[in-house]
From TrEMBL:
Species of the source: Streptomyces klenkii
Lineage: Bacteria, Bacillati, Actinomycetota, Actinomycetes, Kitasatosporales
Group of enzyme by EC: transferase
EC identifiers of the protein: 2.4.1.1
Any one Gene Ontology BP term: carbohydrate metabolic process
Residues found modified as N6-(pyridoxal phosphate)lysine: 615
Keywords: Allosteric enzyme, Carbohydrate metabolism, Glycosyltransferase, Pyridoxal phosphate, Transferase
Name recorded for this polypeptide: glycogen phosphorylase
A molecular function GO annotation: glycogen phosphorylase activity
Domain DUF3417: 13-120
Catalytic activity reported: [(1->4)-alpha-D-glucosyl](n) + phosphate = [(1->4)-alpha-D-glucosyl](n-1) + alpha-D-glucose 1-phosphate
PANTHER family: GLYCOGEN PHOSPHORYLASE
Functional note: Phosphorylase is an important allosteric enzyme in carbohydrate metabolism. Enzymes from different sources differ in their regulatory mechanisms and in their natural substrates. However, all known phosphorylases share catalytic and structural properties.
């Protein structure tokens, strides 16, 4: 029989135990060991059965056990201490409160997914885990962030395997009342709601649920509202489900509905209104349109409102490939923002021009969410130094006339929330060296360049730690593998071999991530005989634990999973290589610490950052990776290995994979395994242990999300708030009018003549340190000198006279206009480097409220004829 209605029955805690409810509903427990230990003490068996979820635990504890705990003075003291500690954490001054005045009063952070804890399954992979770590680190630092996302009733799928090794998806129904969530309510007790207008007179309504992530509220919009039609109720059905209109509605609800949810939350709670709006990937890009609508209702015109909204906006792109960006048909977007749709009073053509790919190489009929994100944000960034370079090249069409390195997309390298990902055993080892308080502060707040206090940990202690973590992983793998085989239809009698899977004394390699083709799950299978030799080596064997999910619509990814699973099923290797289905946070928290080596072999440069190796490193695991993402930035031979990249322009895919797989096998056979098994007296691998120590002391402080969030505050949030404050309604209107005037007049701007006067005769060469005086004649048309900046740009030149490693030298106006209206600019150019050297001149728009000279995408360079005098000076 099936129930005709479902509801949750909440436990009634005895009065002395009431603080347990508050502790369970604040997700700080997910990264606070003492609080988790307190819940475990409530009912150890129930804690295991609840998979470490306090809400589920409290819903299952027998009444007599609760009564006994209420009478237990020792437990009550622990509970009081935990509750007091949480209150101090929520209200005390932290890093942000100690900074100079001028930081944003609040920041709204929008993301399509958030990986906070396995108990709130609203994530699919790296983007969501990064967003969750961002919120947790913001809480630790005291940053006044408000998170905004969607509440997916089915979350992301659960993965299992068929007998043949084919991925199968399951979508369990999530009841918000059974999750650590509270519905946002009006003063009269009714549920708070946001509403969006849809074509045909329909509405999309959503409730607002709140999760408390330490000090940070996370608002999740839920369209499963009775007043909605069936289609609208399903908008928040599952993460990354559906396509076309369904996906568009999700992103409209996230962006437009998300801003309205933030306004509702601030109205009800008194939380400061955000001065900065951060869009984590393009899915939430419509939030900028809603902010424009808000400003238009105050009397600003569209252009002034656009300038105002852009000033306080930050956009982070996470994808290095165009295929990873959501793009919608122009007509679909036009229908939803037309007269009968959302954002009334705003011309749909103005909406469309923000997202259409109207640039060289784009498809003008497609509305690109990342393009809209960039056009609606004055500040943008990639998520590693290399990814910033890739992003500048990828989106260079939006800034025609500028070299990719001048495209205004910065980079802030991702980090990971150490208190979430560091194993308790690792934390205790650090705490013994520096004290519990200092260790917790170092992991949560960061700020150190090195953790030298860890350098003195004895070799024996480090090796014992690694052995303990490896043993725990072996137990976890066997338990999960047994459950997986039972799901695949195996009986108990045929699973005896699982008791011998993996060996706690063998070099253990981890590989776990999503399974798009570029991450190359099966590169390790390129030469199966050689891999088998590595796995079964009589003296230096290796064992590999693999996990990962393919997108439900990605059959090619599913075939990769099946290929790996079938190899792992081979009786010859199944004790040395395993595939674990249903990769998620709970598995990852055991997998990262338990591995000796973390393997990553994407196609360079398609890994934007790749934070799994960071989490492994914080637990003393060494990285073996292609130089991509963060590893390209921070790799050193002291704490890992780099897989060479076969990236020649004429290289075909098969040949590239063959070469890189061969390099991987060579590293494992000749460098990684010998170092692990090279034991000195006492049985300790001294050189391996030293690499672990270097990983902890040198790499550890760099990979922290605390470092990442501080960089966002200092480099992006603070300047965005300052720009937002400067854009008063009058200033915004003035800036919009100025931009319109400059764009209209720009076709008449020209570089007419460039003259160089050297302090010595050039004759094609000059000496280092000599100076060239430039005199540049320009036409500004209807523009004034105050509207522009004339620059000399100098640097190295290649054989085709292309400049690189450039420096900019502003030139100054010399007197008034000539009779023909031309103006003269002058300035010195110092020849500050030897070798091939060249320069050019250019004219850019200039205004005190522009974030960079490239912001408007306007630049005037010399014509070919004029450029004769702007060529090469040194050869």
């Amino acid at each position: 029989m099936k129930a005709i209605r479902r509801f949750s029955v909440r436990p009634v805690l005895p009065e002395p135990l009431r603080p347990l409810s508050e502790l369970a509903r604040n997700l700080r427990w997910s990264w606070h060991p003492e609080t988790r230990e307190l819940f475990q003490a409530v009912d150890p068996e129930g804690w295991r059965a609840a998979a470490g979820d306090p809400m589920r635990l409290l819903g299952s504890v027998p009444a007599d056990r609760l009564a006994a705990l209420a009478d237990d003075r020792r437990f009550r003291r622990r509970l009081t201490a935990a509750a007091d500690d949480l209150q101090d954490y929520l209200t005390g001054r932290r890093w942000y409160q100690e900074q100079p005045e001028g930081l944003p009063a609040a920041i709204a952070y929008f993301s399509p997914e958030f990986g906070i804890t396995a108990a709130l399954p609203q994530y699919s992979g790296g983007l969501g885990i990064l967003a969750g770590d961002h919120l947790k680190s913001a809480s630790d630092l005291g940053v006044p962030l408000i998170g905004v996302g969607l509440l997916y009733r089915h979350g992301y799928f659960r993965q299992s395997l068929s007998r043949e090794g084919w991925q199968q998806e399951h979508y369990p129904l999530l009841d918000p009342n059974e999750l650590p969530l509270t519905m946002l309510r009006e003063p009269d007790g009714s549920a708070s709601r946001v509403s969006l207008a849809l074509p045909g007179g329909r509405s999309l309504r959503a409730h607002i649920w709140q999760a408390r992530v330490g000090r940070v509220p996370l608002l999740l919009l839920d369209s499963d509202v009775e007043e909605n039609g069936p289609g609208e109720r399903e908008v928040t059905d599952r993460l990354y489900g559906g396509g076309g209109e369904h996906r568009l509605l999700q992103e409209m609800l996230l962006g437009i509905g998300g801003v309205r949810a933030v306004r509702t939350y601030c109205r009800l709670t008194g939380h400061p209104e955000p001065e900065v709006f951060h869009t984590n990937e393009g899915h939430a890009g419509f939030l900028g349109l809603e902010r424009i609508r808000e400003l238009v209702t105050t009397g600003l015109d569209f252009d002034a409102a656009l300038e105002c909204a852009r000033a306080g906006a930050v956009f982070t792109t996470h994808t290095p490939v165009p295929a990873g960006i959501d793009r919608f048909d122009r007509e679909l977007v036009a229908r939803h923002f037309g007269p009968a749709g959302e954002l009334p009073g705003i011309d749909v053509e103005r909406v469309l021009e923000l997202g259409l790919e109207t640039y060289p190489g784009g498809e003008p009929g497609l509305f690109n969410m990342a393009v809209m994100g960039l056009r609606l944000a004055q500040r943008a960034n990639g998520v590693s130094t290399l990814h910033g370079q890739v992003s500048r090249q990828m989106f260079a069409g939006l800034w025609p006339g500028f070299d990719p390195e001048e495209v205004p997309i910065d980079s802030v390298t991702n980090g990971v929330h150490a208190p979430t990902w560091v194993a308790p055993e690792v934390l205790r080892l650090g705490a013994r060296r520096v004290g519990a308080g200092r260790a917790e502060d170092a992991l949560a707040v960061g700020g150190s360049q090195r953790w030298d206090a860890l350098a003195d940990i004895p070799d024996a202690d480090i090796w014992e730690l690694r052995r303990t973590l490896r043993e725990q992983l072996v137990e976890e793998v066997r338990e999960r593998l047994r459950a997986s085989w039972r799901e695949r239809g195996a009986g108990t009698a045929e699973l005896g071999w699982i008791d011998g899977v993996l060996d706690p004394g063998v070099l253990t390699i981890g590989f776990a991530r999503r399974v798009p083709s570029y991450k190359r799950l099966t590169l390790m299978l390129r030469d199966r005989d050689r891999l088998m030799e590595l796995l079964l080596h009589p003296e230096r064997p290796v064992q590999i634990v693999v996990a990962g999910k393919a997108h439900p619509a990605d059959d090619s990814g599913k075939r990769l999973v099946q290929e790996l699973v079938r190899f792992a099923d081979d009786p010859r290797v199944r004790r040395r290589l395993v595939f674990l289905p249903d990769y998620g946070m709970a598995m990852a928290q055991r997998l990262y610490p338990g591995c000796d080596v973390w393997l990553n072999n994407p196609l360079r440069p398609l890994e934007a950052c790749g934070t799994s190796g960071m989490k492994a490193a914080l637990n003393g695991c060494l990285n073996l990776s292609v130089l991509d993402g963060w590893w390209d930035e921070w790799y050193e031979p002291d704490f890992g290995w780099a897989i060479p990249t076969a990236d020649g322009a004429a290289m075909d895919e098969d040949r590239r994979d063959d070469l890189e797989a061969a390099a991987l096998y060579e590293l494992l056979e000749r460098r990684v395994a010998p170092r692990f098994y090279d034991r000195a007296q006492g049985g300790l691998p001294g050189r391996w242990i030293e690499m672990v120590r270097r990983t902890l002391t040198t790499l550890g402080p760099k990979v922290l999300a605390g470092r990442m969030v501080r960089e966002y505050v200092e480099r992006l949030y603070a300047p965005a708030a300052e720009a937002q404050r400067a854009l008063t309604p009058a200033a915004a209107s003035e800036l919009a009018a100025w931009k319109a005037r400059v764009r209209a007049g720009w076709p008449a701007v020209a570089v007419d003549h460039v003259e160089a006067v050297a302090d010595t005769a050039l004759n094609g060469t000059a000496t280092l340190g000599s100076t060239v005086s430039l005199r540049v004649s320009v036409t500004l048309g209807p523009l004034d000198p105050a509207d522009v900046e004339v620059q000399a740009v100098a640097g190295r030149v290649d054989p085709a006279d292309r400049l690189s490693k450039t420096a900019v030298f502003p030139l100054k106006p010399a007197g008034g206009p000539a009779l023909d209206g031309r103006r003269l600019y002058e300035g010195p150019l110092t020849l500050d480097r030897t070798g091939p050297f060249g320069y050019t001149v250019r004219i850019l728009p200039a205004h005190r409220l522009l974030s960079s000279g490239a912001e408007m995408g306007l630049v005037t360079l010399p014509s070919e004829a004029t450029g004769e005098a702007a060529g090469v000076l040194l050869r």
